[in-house]
Structures are given as C-alpha cells and as structure tokens.
Design goal:
Blueprint: H1 6-34, H2 39-64, H3 69-90, H4 94-122, H5 129-150, H6 155-176, H7 198-204, E1 216-220, E2 225-229, H8 241-271, H9 280-296, H10 304-323, H11 328-353, H12 360-363, H13 366-386, H14 390-410, H15 420-434, H16 438-448, H17 453-464, H18 469-476, H19 480-494, H20 499-507
Antiparallel strand pairs: 1-2
Helix pairs in contact: 1-2, 1-4, 1-5, 1-6, 2-4, 2-13, 3-4, 3-6, 4-6, 4-11, 5-9, 5-11, 8-10, 8-11, 8-13, 8-14, 9-11, 10-11, 10-14, 17-19, 17-20, 18-19
Length: 509
Amino acid sequence: MPSIDRRSLASLLALALFTFVFLGGEFFFDRQIGQLVSAEEVVGAQALVLGTSVVGFLAFASIEKLPKSRAWAPAIEAAGTIACLCAIFSSTDPAIVQIAGCLGFFLLGCLGSAAHWSMASAFENSPSLAKGAGSAYAAGILLQFANNQFAPAGAGELAVLCIGAVALAALMLAAQKDRPRETQPTGHHGESASTLPCNRVISDAQTTVTSNTRKRIFLTCPKTAGVIAHTPNRENGNPQPLSRALWSVALVAILACMFSTLDNVVTIADAQGAVSVDEWPRLFLAASGLVAGVLFDIRERRYMGFIMFSITVLSIISILAVEAGASPVIGLIVFYLSSGFFVTFFTATFLQLAPRMRTPQLWAGMGRAANNLCAFTISGASIALTQAGVVSVMIASLVLFVLATVAFMGAGLFRLPQTTREREVIEAGKAAENAPSPEELQAAFIEAHSLTPREADVLRAVTADERPLKNIADDLGISLRMVQRHLTNIYEKTGTQTRAGLAKKFLGK
C-alpha cells in the first residue's frame, strides 16, 4: 500500500476504531441484555439497536451543517456512547438497557458516518481506497479478537470499549482539522473553476464544443469570457451518480439478505455440532478483508464489480451445496471469506461515490447503514426461512441471486470503467475534435482585450507577416502615424512590447 499522509492515516485508523467499537459494542450489548431476557428477545433487541444506528448514520449530514460541529460533535458523541455503555453494564432493568443501547448505537452511527466521510475525503481519487477500506476493517476485527482474548468480560471489556471511543473521537478531530467543509467544482489539475486566471480560461477554450447542437457554458472573469465544454453528469458511460448510488444501496441490501441466510445456515450447523465457530474464523475474516482490498484496487478498481459478483456466485453455490447435504465446513469457510469481501466492497463503493454526490456526508457511510438496516428488518424472516426447509432456502437463494444480478447491472458494475490513461487519451481526442477554429480564438482574444475594430484590423495585419508598417498602412488606407498609434494602443492593452511577442500571444504560437 503506497505511503499515505498523516490525515489519511488518521482517517483510516478512525474507521478501524469505529469498526472495533461498533462490533465490540454490539457483542457487549448482546451479552449484557442476554442476562436479563430470553434468547429470542435478544435477537429483537439487537435488531432494534442496529436500526437506531442507521438513524445515526443518516443524521450525520445534518449535524455536519451545524455551526462549529467539527469542534464539538465527535467529543459529545463519544462521551454519550461511553455513558450508554456504562448504563448497559450497570443496569438490571431490560428497558433501561434497551434504551441505553439504542441511544448509544445512534451516537455510534453518527461517529461512524463521520469516520466514513473523513476517509472518503482523505482518499478521494486514491488508487488505494479499497486497500484502505479493507485494512480498516481488518484492523477493527483484529482489535475485537484481541479484546475478546485478553480483556476480561464485563468491566475490563467495558474499559477497552470506552478507551476505543475516546481514541475514535480524538482521531476524528485530527482527521477533520484540515478538511475543507465544501468541495468546489474543479478545473484542470484540481484548480477551482472560479479562480482560474483569465489566460487559462482562454487557453481552455481550445477544448470548447462549438457545434450549434452542443451546449456552451460561459465562465466570466474580470477580463474575458472563456468558453468551457459542457460535460454530462455521467462517469465513463456508467449511470449518473445518484442512480448508481441508489442501485448500490439496493445491491447491498440484497447481498446482506443473502449473506444473512448463509450465516444462519452456518449457525444452525454450529448449534447441531456439525461445525465449531470459535474465535479463529475472525482471523480469517480479517485476512479476507485485506485480500479483498488488494484485489479490488487492481487497475483503479476496474474489476471490483466482477470480483464481488464472483464471490456472490460462490456464496449461492455454497448455500445450495450445504442444503443439499455437503459438509457445513464449506459454508463456514465461504461465509467468512465472502463477509470480508462484502464489507470491503460496500465500504469502498460508497467511499468512492460520496465525493460525487450532492450531499457527500450522507452517502459516505451508506453501505454500512444499508447493511445495518437490512439486519434490522430481516433478522426474524431470515431465521424463519432457514427453518422452513431445504426447498425454501434454495428457492429464496436463487431469487436473491437473480435480484443481485439485476442490481449489479443497474449499478453499472458490469461495465469496465476507464483507467486514468484511457481517460487521458479519450479526453485528448475530444479536445482536438472540439477545438475552436483559429478565427474564433482570435475573436475571443480581441474581445478579451477590448480592441476597437480598427485596432483589430491593425492587429491582424501586423501579426500576419513581417511587412513594414508603411506597407500595412497603404493596404489599410490609413497613414503610417495612425498605424503606429493603433499599434501602441494594442501593446498597452495586451501587455506586449514587440510585434513578435504580440504575434506569439495572438496566434498562440
């Protein structure tokens, strides 16, 4: 993974800590409320806190707009999370534990959305975005593994989670310190379009679309109006960002249902003693996240959709195989392999999409929000499905696969996106094809420098060749003195001093 700056590292660590605190907090809540209610009620209680976390993810965009929210929001959210964890640990009232869990996970959702947005802005256009997402997820899983291994259950586990929440808030403040609140549309090389110098605007006019059937947009600056090409809101032939984002949300929800079914198949096998789900699979889960990040980033995430679709096919086959009587170990291995790929996929997908959206803060963590929402809504139905029989599971799996395929297509994930080099070649070809004529560029130059019609005639004559001014005066039918006066005015208006310099500037040679 290429070297990253301090801000990118802070945002990556923040996402890793969020993963650890969120997953650890979920496990901590389940264990604490499990001591107070029945096993069936624990499932509903867990679904409810996951549902409130989705509200927190969606609320972050509004919180971000509040005055000075960067200065106080992470600290308040972390403090509230710690208070809720303490209430979950100390209370013996199931209602209080449930309320504390919902409030705590709402605040964790806000922190999680902030962590995702911080990473999306820090890794924007980075070739290592998926590696960063996979590394953050793997680090969070490893922290949870270490916590389960070495921190005593109860007070020790609570202390580690509280420390993690404090560290998360501190990293969020560090990562957001230098991040601009808004990103302006940019010109070439990342310059703000509103700050492009006038001579650059005129130069950019060489990429103007001049056909009457094409739209022209004028960018006004103090000296001139340059013309820039209108670019449709599409990316390399893929759907528009909003359409792609909505299809991606649907895809995450469908895949979450599918992996939930696979999880239940493995869980039932574990309950029957066919397999043993101990701590070691979490290490496999972390490894699969890292491998997914590396594979997804190949050629600027060119094949990410195809790779994830292959994992989807593998998961469906494993569900059908286990239900048909194959060893449950197959389902166990595929589940942990595919889960790491799935989390890295939906994280990288929305980190990549967010900066292109109208409200980027809302979309950065949308993958995690959609996954949690699905866990909230289908947990009971998924369990009921796996208990309904082999045929029901197989039919549901095939239906989910068809829906997932449609969503993959709708999100444009079966189209090969262009690499940077391919985009440069295409853009260069378009620039050459759409370049305005020399006459149009010269007319723009004359208008930019407010030359009179007679001065424009003199300008064209003195830059056409190296004829003496006397001959130019004769051709124009005016005196030599008048030609010299016009030429002096032209020098002053264009900031030139010689005919050679004027010709170079006017003709662009």
